[in-house]
Amino acid sequence: MKKIKLIVLMLVTTIGIISCNNELEKDTKLEKTVEVSERFSDIGRAHNEMLNDFYYGDNSTRNASKSYRDLSIEEYFGVIDKKYVVKDIGVQTARTADEGTLTASDILFEELSVSEISCSYISQVEEILETPFESMEETKKAITEIEAEALVKNSEDDIFEFLSYAETAKASLEFWNENLDVLEENREKDNASRGAIQNLWNKYKHKLAMMAASDAAGAAAGAAVGAIYGSQIPAVGTALGAAIGATVAGTASSAEGFKNDCVCIIIPLTDIKKKIENQ
Hints:
Blueprint: H1 2-36, H2 38-56, H3 73-77, E1 82-88, H4 104-110, H5 116-130, H6 136-153, H7 160-185, H8 201-231, H9 237-260, E2 262-267, H10 269-277
Antiparallel strand pairs: 1-2
Helix pairs in contact: 1-6, 2-7, 2-9, 4-5, 5-6, 5-7, 6-7, 7-8, 7-9, 8-9, 8-10, 9-10
């Protein structure tokens, strides 16, 4: 009987240790995400700042006779050197989106030299954005968990395109959730109030998620291009070049995606190179 009690006690203790280790491992992953991806969250913030400038800022091409959808991407970013359309988006939901033969991760890997390891994680986030959760917070959390897993297994330099993608996706969800009502439903009203944030998630979550997919795909492509340009200029370097490329291409892809209701990858190579050279 004593042996049985001892065995039971050992099993309970072992299970407790395993449970604690699992929780510790999970916490370590999340801590590493916060610590390592801080430089990449800057890409997300810069993306939203540039989008805000494109639609509302001093550099916007907006005027009283022009709707937000009609703003010129070329006037703001210059020549669009490369464009890939992944899929069309329905007016309010992506459930009616056309099924493309290639996903964004396929195009990024096959056409735009984004690393295979980054694309493997990008494809996981694509699945989340295809079927977003019941809230924006849950959707962002799911993306963060994939980042955490990726960072445990890889260095940030090995997956910099993916981290650019993921952080832009999360930032984009916030931007479009706060602004879609103004840009789309009230775009004819010059005095539309942007002070009160309206949560459109329940009504528009599939379209919002697909907008984020477009922004993020552009960011991954821009990061790959920017890293190459930046590496050629010692004063800039790969990391800053990638950040600039991700911000520019992610924003351009966002604007084009909103304008034409599509998930797309837009790369203004000339503008990316110019901004890198001007650092």
